[in-house]
Amino acid sequence: MAAFGVICLVTLFLASSATACDRCVHQSKVAFFSNAQALQSGACGYGSLAIGFNNGHLAAATPSIYKQGAGCDACFQIRCKNEKICSKEGTTVLVSDLNQDNNTDFVLSSRAFMAMAKNGMGQEVLKLGIADVEYKRVPCDYKNKNLAIRVEESSQKPNYLAIKLLYQGGQTEIVGVDVAQVGSSNWNSMFRNYGAVWDTSRVPNGPLQFRFVVTAGFDGKWYWAKKSVLPADWENGAIYDSGLQITDIAQEPCSPCDNSTWKDSVNNF
């Protein structure tokens, strides 16, 4: 079983490496949701919490970016190419949903779409409907917020635990989650149910600790929350602080990127 686990982790790291060049500049198109509520029911499972993330600058991403949920909470800088009405720096969006439209890599919240504009030109950008853009992945910065765990309403003590991961920072993906009773070395694997939601039907008794496999490009490592994250009397709907900050910056060895068009950005990407 241990050997199988190692093989699985290696496979996950290689899979991450295969798509690691998302930090390069990409050319695409983006559209926007006219209804702000659309992204609250997104495939990542954030629900009504989503509108409070990243000042509401959210995006539904194509399957290659969504990565079966591993891309949830990833951040991308996007700028439109219409220099008359769009700023050089564009805006940063957070992935909260899956975009199945093959014509655009992202569908943005209207707030994020307008944020690509120069001052006073937001309505002009909206009139584009679909905009030609450049984008690249950037670190998520939660201003010193720790990774948080929300217990889902579907959890049923003591037989089933479902959690949602919030405030995952850096340029990272969480590809594995284990849970154990505090002080125990008997770890049980959790499995991605969908989006940012992980679950298990093997729930340890007592207060619970967690560990996470986190990748940044081709690199992967364990993050251990050794303290009691969930108390013995954990409650559905409650959010608990893991005590961990994930801030890794991707250092993947990918093919050279032509980022020359971004050298005039104020952020110097």
Automatic annotation (TrEMBL):
<dbReference type="InterPro" id="IPR005795">
    <property type="entry name" value="LolPI"/>
</dbReference>
<dbReference type="InterPro" id="IPR007117">
    <property type="entry name" value="Expansin_CBD"/>
</dbReference>
<dbReference type="InterPro" id="IPR036749">
    <property type="entry name" value="Expansin_CBD_sf"/>
</dbReference>
<dbReference type="Pfam" id="PF01357">
    <property type="entry name" value="Expansin_C"/>
</dbReference>
<dbReference type="InterPro" id="IPR036908">
    <property type="entry name" value="RlpA-like_sf"/>
</dbReference>
<comment type="similarity">
    <text>Belongs to the expansin family.</text>
</comment>
<feature type="signal peptide">
    <location>
        <begin position="1"/>
        <end position="20"/>
    </location>
</feature>
<feature type="domain" description="Expansin-like EG45">
    <location>
        <begin position="41"/>
        <end position="145"/>
    </location>
</feature>
<dbReference type="InterPro" id="IPR009009">
    <property type="entry name" value="RlpA-like_DPBB"/>
</dbReference>
<keyword id="KW-0964">Secreted</keyword>
<dbReference type="InterPro" id="IPR007112">
    <property type="entry name" value="Expansin/allergen_DPBB_dom"/>
</dbReference>
<dbReference type="InterPro" id="IPR007118">
    <property type="entry name" value="Expan_Lol_pI"/>
</dbReference>
<keyword id="KW-0732">Signal</keyword>
<feature type="domain" description="Expansin-like CBD">
    <location>
        <begin position="159"/>
        <end position="242"/>
    </location>
</feature>
<protein>
    <recommendedName>
        <fullName>Expansin-like protein</fullName>
    </recommendedName>
</protein>
<dbReference type="Pfam" id="PF03330">
    <property type="entry name" value="DPBB_1"/>
</dbReference>
